């Protein structure tokens, strides 16, 4: 009886020491995986929002026609990259939720790889979009070349009509302002003047069109960059979860022995 009692005494301290440690680790894993689950839900919602915004930009009535007339189709390169990335975000978010809840190490490693890929893909798309839709970006020289070419070809009916549509629709005058017409010894057209005040528009079409594009893509680029940050957080949390799961397995083996 004493021998049994002695064995019990030798056994109890070890179980008492390891039991709480394993329980604490389990609670930490529980917290990490459900936090990761919530972040993936937010990421999925961002993916849906990005997808919807891209479709709106691509299929907005009249916008495609404007971009085709002004030969600015390069603007859509970034939109298409982001559109593909948004589809990836929506699919991968489900993978992240499942791998976190199952605590599957292999799936979590795969999820980390997809998060890195989406981060790079989204960052490239956002940079391309911003480079073709912001002030002092690559889009401004393209717009200026088109407007000056239209101004220097007034004898062509199509060029004259396109220039009129742009200046009336956007509310601008020339490439950089009314002085463009005066420098070319051309009269200031009626569409360069405000229909109410009769004053010439101060800003040129380069600036006005750039601000117009900024307004359309500002929110899109912001949501994409926020999604990229969530991808980084997800990757780090997945790595922490993997380490915690491995540690739990090691603790469980020690506890059983």
Radius of gyration, Cα only, in angstroms?
A: 30 Å
Described by the principal axes of the CA atoms, the overall outline is rod-shaped
**Number of distinct helices:** 8
Helix share, percent: over 70%
Portion of residues in beta strands equals: under 5%
Overall strand count: 0
For the record, give the distance between the C-alpha atoms at the N and C termini, rounded to a whole number: 24 Å
Structural class: mainly alpha
Counting copies of identical and different chains, the oligomeric state is single chain
Major beta-sheet overview: none
Structural features, described:
There is one protein chain. The protein is mainly alpha-helical. It is built from eight helices and no strands. It has helices spanning 2-59, 63-69, 75-102, 105-131, 139-151, 157-170, 179-183, 205-256.
Question: Which features does this protein show?
Answer:
single chain, mainly alpha, disordered N terminus
What's the quick description here?
This protein is mainly α and 257 residues long. The protein has helices spanning 2-59, 63-69, 75-102, 105-131, 139-151, 157-170, 179-183, 205-256.
List the helices and strands and how they pair.
Elements: H1 2-59, H2 63-69, H3 75-102, H4 105-131, H5 139-151, H6 157-170, H7 179-183, H8 205-256
